[in-house]
Write a structure and sequence with these properties.
Number of helices: 5
Strand content: 25-35%
Mean pLDDT: 94
Shape: elongated
Length: 193
């Protein structure tokens, strides 16, 4: 079985590379609009499933990995800022607050369409962030394609007061502990090559 990461994210690609299994990346083109009344957890889980299913349609005999992550600040989604101005505004919102990074994961067999899916939550409480700290962070790290302008494996660790969660890789967009478990259910064991 081929392994396909349904993503164009360089961060997810880097994480999956750590498992040492061959894979390819295909970017799914799906509508990422949130459905009215949908909780943040339901939203990221649905998107991860839709990404895997979309890639599975044209890629048979494959195990497809779909993932989606957002930052949940008191029910408000903070996505990828894509501009410095939006990034600065997001970081001002995070100042002194706790945000929950919710990461949906779906691993699907494209032949049977059987899949395993879940949401990993990782909370981060931020220090009080002054504008000079925010500007320095934005000057020195590439975060415009990161949920809530946070790249925890980069300089964002300097902005953090405390962190809590079961899988630190989930904050980077791909919960490896659950992924390894789901791959194993499909007979892909990383260490038994």
């Amino acid at each position: 079985m081929n392994v396909i990461l349904a993503s164009s994210s360089i961060f997810r690609k880097q994480l999956l590379s750590k498992l040492g299994i061959p894979f390819k990346c295909i970017s799914p083109d799906i509508n990422e609009r949130r459905i009215k009344g949908e909780s943040v957890s339901e939203y990221v889980q649905r998107l991860s499933i839709e990404k895997a299913k979309k890639i599975g349609i044209s890629n048979k005999s494959s195990i497809i990995i779909g993932s989606d992550e957002v930052a949940d600040l008191e029910g408000k989604i903070l996505g990828k800022p894509l501009s410095r101005n939006k990034a600065k505004n997001q970081l001002r919102l995070l100042s002194g607050k706790k945000v929950i990074f919710r990461t949906g994961l779906c691993v699907m067999n494209s032949d049977t369409e059987k899949y395993y899916s879940s949401v990993s939550n990782y909370s981060i409480t931020f220090k009080d962030l002054k504008d000079n700290i925010i500007d320095s962070y934005l000057d020195n790290d590439d975060v415009l394609k990161c949920a809530a302008s946070i790249r925890i494996e980069g300089l964002a660790i300097n902005l953090v007061k405390s962190m809590r969660g079961n899988d630190p890789s989930s904050i980077m967009g791909l919960p490896l502990l659950k992924l390894i478990n789901y791959l194993d259910k499909f007979g892909i064991n990383v260490l038994s090559k």
